[in-house]
Amino acid sequence: MSSQSRAVRLVLLETPLGWCIEIGRKSILFCTLNSHKVDMSNLLGGQIGLNDFIFAHKKGRPKEVEIVKSEDALGLTITDNGAGYAFIKRIKSGSVIDRIPHIQVGDHIEKLDGVNVVGKRHYEVARMLKDIPTGSTFTIRLVEPMKSGFQGIAPRNKGGAKQTKQGYGSGKETLRFKSNGNAAIEDEHDDATQCGIDAINSLLDSFMGINDTELATQIWDLGSNKTNSMDFAEAIDASDLEAFGFTDDFIIELWGAVTDARQGRHKR
Fold this sequence. Notes:
With 268 residues, the protein is of the alpha+beta class.
């Protein structure tokens, strides 16, 4: 089975699964078969049996860890679910990563030095890590599976009202670890950034019928350090967003949302 067809099957499976426990598909980090534990050997792939139990693991807090690559090998074994998410499967004892307690098996690798790796296969992510020069410092952004167990999952209300979600947090904070051991919880987005992301999302909804905060955030990230619309357009064309085929006029609209947010012209 191709990775593309596996991805489609996982998406089709995770969507109704999310309905059953009243969480969105995008909130599901991964699913395991026949085990509620974060066990990457039981990661849901392309095949399930009629008697299999499926356990959904929600996205927890994102964290960014600054790592000094002091050895050629980091000591990571990486796997993926065939639907665009790469995970840490094993950590070698005594390795560089093993000495960093904040990195755990089951963490999803989202970015390497600001480069989004969602959509890449595990071997592509492993190659990127291998290509980092020994002795250099890099930042890895991870999303850990929620560790609150099943206390937040309840049967659907008969009346159709949504359950109150407990202990999930705002999802707008990131735990950042420096190579010197210091750590801090930082707001994911300041007001200007959030206004820009909201404006981009509104444009996506108006022009394309897409309401996707993650996509809007990715577009914002591409434009946040650009000084003109040409560089912004080139950044989009060089990214996986090129597949959307945004028109020049639409890119100008997106760039307008970025610059308006920078200059405080958006209202919350």
